[in-house]
Amino acid sequence: MVALRDFDLTVEEGSFVTVLGRSGCGKSTMLNLLAGLTEPSAGVVSYRGEKLTGPDIDIGYLTQSDTLMPWRDVQRNVEMPLEIRGVKAEERRRTAAGLLQRVGLAGFGKHYPRELSGGMRRRASLARMLAGTPRTLLMDEPFGALDAQLRTELQEELLRLWQGSGQTVVFVTHDIEEALLLGDRIVVLGGLGRIVADEEITLPRPRSVDALRVDREFVRLHTAMAAALKEGSS
Predict the structure, then answer these.
(1) Which CATH architecture has domain 1-58+134-233?
(2) Which helix (H) or strand (E) holds 20?
(3) Where are the domains of the chain?
């Protein structure tokens, strides 16, 4: 079964790229390739000028599903990447506590995932990914299952954490508004990963949903991306 064909995408370091597409267009397969979890049947995936042959500690991956370890409290979940690297316990605890503070979970370190709301678990997952200090963040519709208010809060939190960090983000979504709110660049995929649109987003930051909805450039981009999605599915 072919998920991506003739796919060619270059992502600039430090940029925030949103990848927009409908279900089944190969978005998740693309992220698995970029994460080194899937080997391409043809072609090459390169990362920072080197062939990617497997998972890289420089690449963090936040999937759609909840992957927090239920038997670990939140603090120890966030510590996991540091533990794997052999970081000493005191430094692990200090780093994890700082990250929990940054994502709005100070005071919840001793709670278990089952005791948290969906939005809080997403925050904890984001903190765990950041604990590994990755240069690149891959995100597969991470806020798709949340209600509108929580989604907006986490979108704003993600942008706050990213801005000035120098990190590269590839963020997959099926929501045009989310793609335009977050990204510097938007790539629209059609069937088999065919790129049907690739456009820079020049909307000024910081961005808010309410302000964007009456912005002429936002309306133009939204209309163009909706047309590209329709073209990609035809």
Answers:
(1) 3-Layer(aba) Sandwich (3.40)
(2) strand 16-20
(3) 1-58+134-233, 69-133
**Contact call for residues 126 and 116 (beta carbons, < 8 A):** no
- Report the distance separating Cα 162 and Cα 203, nearest Å: 17
DSSP-derived letter for residue 3 is S
Longest dimension (CA), the chain: 55
Q: Quickly count: other Cβ atoms within 10 Å of residue 37's Cβ.
A: 14
pTM over 0.70: yes
How does pLDDT run across 77-131, given as a tens digit for each residue?
Answer: 999 999 988 999 999 999 999 999 988 899 999 999 999 998 899 989 999 999 9
Both structure tokens of 88: 């000493």
Task: Give bridge partners of residue 197 from the DSSP assignment.
Answer: 188
Q: C-alpha angle with apex 73: 63 to 136, nearest 5 degrees?
A: 35
